[in-house]
């Protein structure tokens, strides 16, 4: 697979539709975003016992995911904190490649520097499966 440049990425977000899965429905680009990240994780459970000859053994437990997105300040996003939303994290907007799912907006950060733009960051905790399209 060829490397991708970041400028063809995008971040979309919309209010929760109440559907069982976040497929379909209107999800809109959120302007001003400059980067995003998604982290998918699994808890590893120790299954080591006396018959393992001194070697640890493990099994996969529960999965979860989190995400972040940062933008140049566009609008007040404080009202989004605590809401369940649909998010799409595009790796390639042109070929419609993205990660998506339901998430709770768990935080908002804002900051300003005297010689820069006012910046905002959102953090998300996934609700259920993180899908890939």
- Would you count the extended β strands for me? 7
The CA-CA distance between the termini, in Å, is 16 Å
Give the CATH architecture: Beta Barrel
Strand content: over 45%
Written as H for each helix and E for each strand, in order along the chain, the element string is EEEEEEE
Could you tell me the radius of gyration in angstroms?
Answer: 18 Å
CATH class: Mainly Beta
Mean pLDDT: 85
Helix amount, in percent?
Answer: under 10%
C-alpha geometry: elongated
Low-confidence stretches: none
Our count of domains comes out at 1
- Given the structure, what is the number of helices? 0
In short:
The chain has a single domain (6-15, 26-132), classed as Elongation Factor Tu (Ef-tu), domain 3. Helices cover 0% and strands 56% of the residues.
Write the layout of secondary structure elements.
Layout (H helix, E strand, L loop, with lengths): L9 E6 L12 E2 L3 E14 L11 E15 L11 E9 L4 E15 L7 E14 L1
Antiparallel strand pairs: 1-2, 1-5, 3-4, 4-7, 5-6, 6-7
Describe the structure.
The protein is mostly beta strands and 133 residues long. It has a single domain, classed as Elongation Factor Tu (Ef-tu), domain 3, CATH 2.40.30. The chain has no helices and seven strands. A seven-stranded antiparallel β-sheet has the order 2-1-5-6-7-4-3, with no helix packed on it. The chain is elongated and about 60 Å long.
């Amino acid at each position: 697979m060829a490397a991708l440049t970041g400028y063809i990425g995008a971040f979309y977000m919309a209010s929760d539709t109440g559907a069982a899965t976040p497929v379909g429905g209107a999800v809109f680009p959120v302007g001003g975003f400059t980067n995003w990240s998604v982290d998918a994780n699994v808890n590893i459970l120790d299954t080591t016992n006396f018959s393992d000859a001194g070697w640890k053994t493990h099994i996969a437990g529960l999965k979860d995911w989190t995400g972040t997105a940062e933008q140049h300040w566009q609008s007040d996003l404080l009202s989004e904190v605590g809401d369940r939303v649909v998010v799409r994290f595009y790796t390639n907007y042109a070929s419609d490649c993205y990660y998506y799912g339901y998430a709770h907006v768990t935080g908002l950060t804002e900051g300003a520097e005297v010689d820069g733009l006012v910046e905002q960051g959102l953090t998300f905790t996934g609700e259920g499966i993180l899908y890939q399209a």
